[in-house]
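HOLO CASE FILE
Compound: iron/sulfur cluster
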Amino acid sequence: MSHEQKEPYKVYRAGGREFAVYLEYDEQLGESYPAYPDFEEHPEYTGEGRPFATAEQESCHYRKPGVPGGPTPGDCGGCGWFYRELTPCDPIGVCMCDARRRKPESVEKQRK
Ligand code: SF4
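Model generated. Tokens follow.
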């Protein structure tokens, strides 16, 4: 798959970062779709060591309902730890779960 256009489909902001999302073409479906970052395959962290996540990312072991007493979320977008910066529909956000946080020093080492 390749980027269908040079200009990003959209640029999303979260956790002090900007993520350019490009459209990719699926030949089987015959349509384009926004290719969001794969943070499970390639984890990235905020300066405070919190992992970025996409709303469509499969929920992890630490998930919690988005509202007290609500259903167990199947993806990060429905998880109570998922923080969206700008709108309730942001597809990219930050996981605020302390159990998944990295110490800032290890994030610095990762960047070098
Ligand atoms: S937002 Fe964080 S705690 Fe919640 S499911 Fe996603 S990775 Fe797990």
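CASE NOTES: The two ends are 30 Å apart (CA to CA). The CA atoms of residues 24 and 32 lie 5 Å apart.
CLOSED: yes
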